[in-house]
Hints:
204 residues
Amino acid sequence: MPTPTRPTRLTDLKRAAILEAAIDEFRSAGYEATSMDRIAARAEVSKRTVYNHFPSKEVLFIEIMHQLWEASREGEELVYRPDLPLRDQLLELVGHKMRLLHGEAFVSLARVAIAAAIHSPERAQAMVARMNEREEGLTVWLRAAAADGRLKIDDPVFAAHQLQGLVKTFAFWPQITLGQPPLRPRERKRVAESAVDMFLAWYA
Amino acid sequence: MPTPTRPTRLTDLKRAAILEAAIDEFRSAGYEATSMDRIAARAEVSKRTVYNHFPSKEVLFIEIMHQLWEASREGEELVYRPDLPLRDQLLELVGHKMRLLHGEAFVSLARVAIAAAIHSPERAQAMVARMNEREEGLTVWLRAAAADGRLKIDDPVFAAHQLQGLVKTFAFWPQITLGQPPLRPRERKRVAESAVDMFLAWYA
DNA sequence: AGGAAACTACACCGAGCAGTGTAATTTCTC
DNA sequence: GAGAAATTACACTGCTCGGTGTAGTTTCCT
């Protein structure tokens, strides 16, 4: 065997099964309505084993949030290129964002996180901060394009929110709050192009 | 006395106190995490009295949804006027929408409803339908303007969503999901004008 | 092979939950 | 002032939950 004896330890399989089951339960029922018994049953694991891996429901939940957060990274930044058309670059940026928005891990994270944030003002703030971090990419691109004189933008943060709003109203909020299916490729293309064109019509 | 003996019946006061307390609890804690005992305590009313007015938690919740829904109406429709500038009319429409979005009743409703919808696909659909009803106003206005030849819009529903997205990304979603404070008048003006200008730059 | 580590079934605890029944007290209405 | 209606305190049912303790079994590692 290539790898000695690592990958298939029982305890690791159990732990993975618990996490997978917990994600499913939390996502479909929310934090409050999910019980440790249900998680154990779904993972086909003793309830005691769940508590041997995770000392409490809260810790298990936080662990899942971390895991989904990391899983939804995978984002290399796009940098501003003075030599390429704005429209092409923006389409690339928006397309990249939409691919992230429709990732399984990201949707799971967002649904659970937003459901939790709605009723916990303290936790909400931390999530805001981190979510906004991830949206920085577009802002810096806009700032660079403005500094280069190719966009008439005085407030890149505001403008970035506008462009994101144009996209999220189709490709994020309906999926998160209403469980609607992700956009099909044709729809994604239309949303992206229409958003970028409208944006450039005003700011270019 | 002008009004004979109507307004201050004890049973009406109790009922009102229960509804008020229930709204507070549901809004801040969500449906699952709110208990009838807490509602009774907050309303300074016997738990039994709560059940004398409302046969179950579910019925009480639905009653509240109805009440908030009605309270957030107050919306007269704006009709398309061929003789007035598009920008003025759209600003009026958007301003009207933002006033609704920031109403106390509407925010309460939306927070509770969305929190409930996130984990209940069946209920979510009904809410979508009714929410979209209320967004019809802008769509018909756009359709009229397009038919009049003053806007180059082939899909008014899509375009209406875009304009709404431009507004909601500042004036709705942050308030609902993150509990952020409503926009100040200056910010509202800026969001509305910028959204309308960008919209018209592309579709006019 | 043998000891350590992990897993399991199961019983249990204390708490909170939605909802009910009742008998006594207060309030309304005429 | 009398009868009806509403409110109250309180006890109670049946259920679910998060979490623990235990004793026996299985799996891992050397």
